[in-house]
Design a protein that fits this description.
The complex is a heterodimer of chains A (375) and B (637). With 375 residues, chain A is α+β, with helices and mostly antiparallel strands. Chain A folds into two domains: 169 residues, Periplasmic binding protein-like II (D-Maltodextrin-Binding Protein, domain 2, 3-Layer(aba) Sandwich); 189 residues, Dipeptide-binding Protein, Domain 3 (Dipeptide-binding Protein, domain 3). Chain A has ten helices and 16 strands. In chain A, a hairpin with a 3-residue loop joins β3 and β4. The longest helix of chain A is centred in the middle third of the chain and has 17 residues. Chain A is globular. Chain A starts with 6 loop residues before the first strand and ends in a 5-residue tail after the last strand. The N terminus of chain A is likely disordered. Chain B has 637 residues and is an alpha+beta fold. Chain B contains 15 helices and 19 strands. In chain B, the strands form four sheets. Chain B has a six-stranded antiparallel beta sheet with strand order 8-7-6-11-10-9, sandwiched between helices. The longest helix of chain B has 67 residues. Chain B is rod-shaped, with a radius of gyration of 58 Å. The two termini of chain B are 29 Å apart. The C terminus of chain B is likely disordered. The chains are: A alpha+beta (375), B alpha+beta (637).
Chain lengths: 375, 637
C-alpha cells in the first residue's frame, strides 16, 4: 500500500527552492487523441480519459454535471500547436483567472508506449507521464520518480445481464469467493493497490472494511458442488489493457481451482460492449472523492451492463444509505470488485511542487514549475 | 481328348506352374526383403528418436542447471530465503529467463512448493507444485517426460528440475521443452517414412492430439483404435493402415509409448513407413512375372505342341493300326523307326497282329468245321428218325412181295401210307431249315396285341387240356386300352406261338401259363411265363443262339426265330428264369415303330456262317434252382 505516500522510490531528492516561471513541460501519454472538439465522441475509453485531462488544462472550470464550461483556452493553457493524434503544444494562458501557470508551455506527445515513457523518464527526456500502477514499483527501482494517488480506480467483474451462463447467483458467488484478491494485488499490481470487497475505497467511504475481499475457496467449492456442472463463463477484457488481461488470467486460474470453468477472451481495445461474453472486466474511475458522487458514477456505468437498478442516489443520502446501496450492488454478485488501483505518475527530475490529483481532478500541471538548469 | 492333347496340356501346366512358382517366390522374397528393410528403418528411426530424446533431455537439463547457476537466480534464492521475503517482485521473471534460455516451460518454485513465477501459465503464481518438493535430490534424475498445465491447456514437456539451496531453503527451477510438432520437425527421416506424435492430453483419443511436423494429422481418427490400445496397455507395437482401397496407400506404423516418471502414458511416437514403393515394386515384379509367364506359355505352347506331336506320332501310328485291325483289315502294319520303347511296342504290335491273324484263320476254319459237324449231326439225327421207318417199311414190302398177293396188297397200302407220312415228316424238317434260312420280310400294320394273344390262347385250348397229359392252366392278364403296335401279325403270331410251345414243353407235369400285356411310355410289353423247372444261367445266356437246344428233338432254331422276329419289329426280348419256379420271356415292342431294324439283320448276325441244326424248339431241362436275366436288344447284332 502506498496510501499517504505520495512518492515512492525517490531516487533524486527535490531541493527546496522558490518557484520559478518558464520552461516547457514535456509530457507523454499513451492515448491518441484525434480531436479536441467537445462535440466529437472519443473512440475509446483511453482517448476519452486523455481528452478529459487535456480539457482540464484548456477550460477554466467544470459545470455541475461534470462537463466543462467556457471556451477552450479559458483555462490555464491554450492550444498553441495541434497535430491530430500525434502532438499537442499548449501555451500558458497569461490571462487565466486562476493565475498564469509556472511553465510557459506544455508539449504533449501522444501514442507513447509504457516502456517508451519509462525509458524517457529514466533518461530524463520527459517531465511527466502517467504510468500503469503495476509498473510503479519497477519504475521506482529503476530510479524514476513515481507519484501515487489514492486508489481511485476500481476493477470489477461485471456479469452481463441476460447471459444464461451466469444467471445462477450461486455461480457468480462461487466465482467471487474463489478469487484471491490479495495475490492479485501482491503479484499483478506489485502491491500498488488494495483488494476490493466493495466498490468504494476505504479512504472515500470509510465502510470498505465491511466488504471482505478474502478468498474462500472451500466455500466456493461447496457452492460448485451444489450447482453441479455449470456452463463455461466467458470473461471479456480490454485487449489494450495488460492489467485487465493479467487479472482475467488469474481469475481463470482461481475459478479452475474452485471447479468453475472460465475462459478469458479479449475484447476490442477500449470497447464498452461485451457482446457474446458472459462477463467482462471493467475499470472504473471515481469521479469524485466523495462517496455519493463516486458511487453514483459507478452505478451509472455498471447499471446498463449488469442490469442493476439505475436509480441515482438521493441527494444528501446518508453514509448508511450509500453503504446499503453499495451492499445491494455487491451482494447480488453481478458486480464483483477485485482491486482498487491508484494513479501512478512518473516525474522528471526538474519537476517541482507536484501533488497527485484527487479523484475527479485533472493533472495539476499549472501548479508545477521546472527547475532550471544552471547556466 | 487325344494323347497328344493330354501331353500338351501336361507340358503347359508344368510350365505354368513352374513359372508361377518362380514368380511367386520372387514376390515373396521381395516382400520379405522390403519388410525387413522397413523394420530396420523403423528401428533406426526409433533409435534416432531415443537418441534425440536423450540429447534433448540432456540439453534441457543443462539449460535448467544453467538457470539455477545464474547469479540472478542465486540472488533470488538468497532473497527468498529471508524471513518475510517478498516473492511478488519475481512474478514475471520466468518469462524473460525462459526466453533467454529457449525453454517453453519454466517455473520458479519456492521452498514450500508455491509457484513464484511461471512462464507457461503466469497467472498460476502462488499455487502449489507439490511434486517438486517430494524429491530431495533432483540432480541424478536428469530429464523426464511430464504433462504440463499451461494457460492454453495441457501439454507434454521434456522436463528437468534443478535446485538452488540457500540455508535450509530450496528454490526449485522447473524447466522444459514442449514435445510437439517442432520436436518432430527436428527429426531427420528417410524418404517414405514419417514420424507422428500423439499426446495423451484428453480423457479419450482426439484426432487433434495426433501431430506431424506441420500440425494435426489428416485422417487422425484412423489411428483411434491403435491409440486406445496404447492407452489401455502401453507397449511397442506395429500396425498397418490402408488409407485408400489401393494397397499402395498402406502405411505400417511402429508405435513407441512415451511414459512419464510414474510410468503413465503421456504420448505415443508413431514411426510410419509407406508401403508404396514396396507395393509398386511387387506390382512391377508381378507384371514382369506375368509377361514372363505369358511369353513362357506362348513358347511352351508351341514347344509342347511340337514335342507332343513328335512324341505321340508312333503312338498315333499304333492307334491307327489298331483301328484298322478292328475294322477288319488284318493286313494293317505299323511302321517301325528307331529302337526306343515305342518302336519295340510297334514291332510287338505287328508281331501280335500277325499271330492273331494266323490264329483267327485257324479259329474260323475250326469253327466252320465244328459248325458243319454240328449241322451234320443235327441233320443226321433229324433225318435218321424218318429213315428208319422208311427202311423198315421198304423191307416189309419186299418180304410181303414174297408172300400172297392179298397180304402184299395189305402191306403195300400200309407201307405207302407210312412212307408218305415219313416223307412228309422229312419235308417238314427241310422246310423248317429253309424257313430259318430265309425269313420273310415283315409287313407292318396296326395290330391289337391283346386280340392276338386271345386268338393264340383259344388256338392252344385243346392242347392245354389234352387227354393223356397233365393239364396246363392259361392265365391272361391283358391291360385295357393297350395301344396298337405296328407289326406283322403273322410273324408276331409265330413268335408268340413258339414261346407258348416252349412253355408247354417246359411244363410236362402241367402248370400255369400266364400271358400278360402292359404298356408304358409308348412301349407295349408281352410276358409269357410258365411254372416249369426253369433254366440255368448258362442256358439263359445261350438260349437265343441258333442250333442250341436242350431238348432231345429240338432244332435250336425256335427262340432264334423269335428273337429275329422281335428284332425286325424294332423291339427286344429278354428272359428271366429261376430253377424250380419257372421262366418268363418279355417282349417289348414300340407302339409305333418308327425306327425299324433291317429285316433279317438279326437273323443273319445270329446265324453267320454256321449251318442250322435239325432241332426247332427249346426245352427247359435243367432241374437246378437258378435265376437269370438275359436281355437281347435290337441293335442289329
Amino acid at each position: 500500500m502506498v496510501l499517504g505516500v505520495p512518492f515512492i522510490g525517490a531516487g533524486r531528492a527535490e531541493p527546496s527552492r522558490r518557484p520559478r516561471y518558464g520552461g516547457t513541460l514535456r509530457v507523454e501519454i499513451g492515448a491518441v487523441v484525434n480531436s479536441l472538439d467537445p462535440a466529437v465522441t472519443p473512440g475509446n475509453e483511453e482517448e476519452a480519459a486523455a481528452k478529459e485531462e487535456i480539457e482540464t488544462l484548456l477550460y477554466e472550470r467544470r459545470s455541475a454535471d461534470g462537463s466543462f464550461a467556457g471556451t477552450a483556452g479559458s483555462g490555464p493553457f491554450r492550444i498553441a500547436e495541434w497535430e491530430s493524434g500525434k502532438h499537442l503544444t499548449l501555451a500558458a494562458n497569461e490571462g487565466c483567472s486562476g493565475g498564469r501557470p509556472f511553465v510557459d508551455s506544455v508539449e504533449i506527445q501522444m501514442g507513447r508506449a509504457v516502456k517508451d515513457r519509462l525509458l524517457d523518464l529514466e533518461l530524463d527526456r520527459m517531465d511527466f507521464a502517467e504510468i500503469p500502477a503495476e509498473e510503479a514499483r519497477r519504475a521506482a527501482e529503476r530510479g524514476i520518480r513515481v507519484s501515487m494517488s489514492e486508489p481511485d480506480d476500481v476493477v470489477a467483474i461485471v456479469f452481463v445481464a441476460g447471459r444464461p451462463a451466469a444467471e445462477d447467483a450461486r455461480v457468480r458467488e462461487a466465482l467471487a469467493r474463489s478469487l484471491d484478491r490479495a495475490a492479485m494485488v501482491n503479484f499483478i499490481l506489485q502491491k500498488q493497490g488494495e483488494p476490493a470487497g466493495g466498490l468504494l475505497p476505504q479512504w472515500s467511504s470509510g465502510t470498505a472494511f465491511l466488504f471482505s475481499p478474502a478468498a474462500d475457496v472451500s466455500g466456493a467449492k461447496e457452492l460448485v458442488a451444489q450447482i453441479g456442472r455449470s456452463a463455461q463463463i466467458v470473461l471479456g477484457y480490454d485487449s489494450g489493457d495488460s492489467l485487465e488481461q493479467s487479472l482475467a488470467e488469474r481469475i481463470v486460474v482461481d475459478a479452475r481451482e474452485a471447479g468453475l470453468r472460465v475462459a478469458a477472451q479479449a475484447l476490442a481495445q477500449g470497447t464498452a460492449a461485451a457482446t457474446g461474453r458472459d462477463a467482462r472486466l471493467m475499470r472504473l474511475r471515481m469521479r469524485s472523492p466523495h462517496p455519493h458522487a463516486a458511487l453514483g458514477g459507478f452505478i451509472a456505468a455498471l447499471a446498463p451492463v449488469a442490469g442493476l437498478d439505475a436509480a441515482p442516489l438521493a441527494e444528501g443520502a446518508s453514509a448508511e444509505e450509500i453503504y446499503e446501496r453499495e451492499r445491494a450492488i455487491v451482494s447480488g454478485y453481478r458486480v464483483v470488485p477485485l482491486v482498487w488501483l491508484p494513479q501512478a505518475y512518473g516525474l522528471g527530475a526538474r519537476v517541482r511542487d507536484w501533488k497527485a490529483p484527487s479523484a475527479g481532478e485533472g493533472w495539476p500541471l499549472a501548479d508545477i514549475w521546472l527547475e532550471q538548469e544552471s547556466p | 481328348m487325344t494323347f497328344r492333347t493330354k501331353l500338351f496340356v501336361v507340358f503347359t501346366l508344368a510350365l505354368l506352374v513352374s513359372v508361377s512358382l518362380i514368380a511367386a517366390g520372387v514376390t515373396v522374397v521381395t516382400r520379405r526383403v522390403f519388410n525387413t528393410l522397413n523394420q530396420q528403418h523403423s528401428e533406426a528411426l526409433v533409435a534416432q528418436f531415443e537418441r534425440e530424446f536423450a540429447r534433448r533431455g540432456q540439453d534441457v537439463d543443462n539449460r535448467v542447471q544453467g538457470i539455477a547457476d545464474a547469479e540472478a537466480t542465486v540472488r533470488m534464492a538468497i532473497d527468498l530465503s529471508r524471513p518475510q521475503a517478498d516473492v511478488s517482485v519475481y512474478v514475471n521473471d520466468a518469462r524473460g529467463v525462459s526466453q533467454s534460455h529457449q525453454l517453453d516451460f519454466l517455473d520458479f518454485v519456492g521452498n514450500d512448493g508455491s509457484i513464484i513465477s511461471s512462464n507457461e501459465w503466469p497467472a498460476r503464481f502462488g499455487y502449489k507444485m507439490d511434486w517438486v518438493t517430494q524429491t530431495q535430490d533432483w540432480g541424478p534424475l536428469g530429464s523426464f517426460l511430464m504433462k504440463v498445465d499451461t494457460q492454453d491447456g495441457p501439454a507434454v514437456g521434456l522436463m528437468a528440475v534443478s535446485t538452488v539451496r540457500v540455508g535450509d531453503k530450496n528454490l526449485y527451477i522447473v524447466g522444459g521443452e514442449k514435445l510437439g510438432k517442432d520436436f518432430l520437425g527436428s527429426m531427420v527421416l528417410p524418404a517414405g517414412m514419417r514420424a507422428l506424435l500423439y499426446l495423451d492430453l484428453d480423457p479419450s483419443f482426439q484426432p487433434s492430439d495426433l501431430l506431424d511436423p506441420s500440425g494435426p494429422v489428416a485422417q487422425g481418427e484412423r489411428f483411434a483404435s491403435f491409440i486406445e490400445q496404447e492407452r489401455a496397455v502401453p507397449r511397442e507395437q506395429s500396425f498397418r493402415i490402408l488409407w485408400t482401397g489401393d494397397a499402395a496407400s498402406a502405411e505400417v506404423f511402429h508405435a513407441l509409448p512415451l511414459l512419464g516418471r510414474q510410468k503413465e502414458l503421456l504420448g505415443v511416437l508413431l514411426v510410419g513407413s509407406s508401403q508404396h514403393e514396396a507395393v509398386m515394386l511387387e506390382r512391377r515384379i508381378a507384371v514382369l512375372a506375368l509377361g514372363v509367364v505369358a511369353m513362357g506359355l506362348l513358347f511352351g505352347l508351341l514347344l509342347s505342341w511340337w514335342g507332343a506331336a513328335r512324341v505321340t506320332r508312333p503312338v498315333r501310328r499304333l492307334s491307327e493300326g489298331a483301328r484298322e485291325v478292328t475294322e477288319g483289315n488284318w493286313n494293317a502294319r505299323v511302321e517301325v523307326r528307331g529302337v526306343d520303347e515305342i518302336s519295340r511296342l510297334s514291332s510287338a504290335f505287328n508281331q501280335m497282329i500277325e499271330q492273331l491273324s494266323e490264329q483267327r484263320e485257324r479259329l474260323v476254319q475250326a469253327e466252320r468245321v465244328a459248325a458243319w459237324r454240328e449241322l451234320a449231326r443235327r441233320l443226321a439225327h433229324e433225318l435218321k428218325n424218318p429213315l428208319f421207318p422208311l427202311q423198315t417199311t421198304v423191307e416189309n414190302l419186299r418180304r410181303a412181295k414174297e408172300g400172297s398177293q392179298e397180304q402184299f396188297e395189305e402191306v403195300f397200302q400200309e407201307s405207302t401210307g407210312i412212307l408218305l407220312s415219313e416223307i412228309e415228316n422229312l419235308k417238314q424238317i427241310v422246310g423248317r431249315f429253309s424257313d430259318f434260312a430265309r425269313m420273310p420280310q415283315p409287313e407292318f400294320a396296326p395290330v391289337n396285341l391283346n386280340e392276338l394273344v386271345r386268338e393264340i390262347a383259344r388256338l392252344f385250348e385243346g392242347q392245354f387240356s389234352a387227354v393223356g397229359r397233365p393239364p396246363i392252366t392259361p392265365e391272361l392278364h391283358l391291360e385295357q386300352d393297350l395301344p396298337l403296335v405296328q407289326a406283322d401279325a403273322t410273324l408276331l403270331r409265330r413268335a408268340i406261338e413258339n414261346l407258348v410251345l416252349n412253355a408247354m414243353d417246359a411244363m410236362p407235369g402241367g402248370g400255369v401259363l400266364m400271358l400278360r400285356t402292359t404298356h408304358r411310355d409308348g412301349d407295349v410289353s408281352l410276358e409269357v411265363s410258365d411254372t416249369g423247372t426253369g433254366l440255368t444261367p448258362e442256358e439263359c445266356e445261350r438260349l437265343f443262339t441258333p442250333y442250341y437246344t436242350t431238348k432231345q428233338h429240338g432244332t435250336g432254331l425256335g427262340l432264334a426265330i423269335v428273337q429275329s422276329i422281335v428284332s425286325d419289329h424294332g423291339g427286344r426280348i429278354s428272359v428271366e428264369s429261376e430253377a424250380g419256379v419257372g421262366t418268363s420271356f418279355h417282349i417289348h415292342l414300340p407302339s409305333k415303330s418308327t425306327q425299324r431294324a433291317e429285316p433279317g439283320a438279326s437273323a443273319e448276325a445270329a446265324i453267320p456262317e454256321t449251318p442250322a441244326s435239325a432241332s426247332t424248339e427249346v426245352a427247359e431241362a435243367s432241374a437246378e434252382k437258378a435265376e437269370s436275366t438275359e436281355s437281347v436288344r435290337n441293335e442289329g447284332a
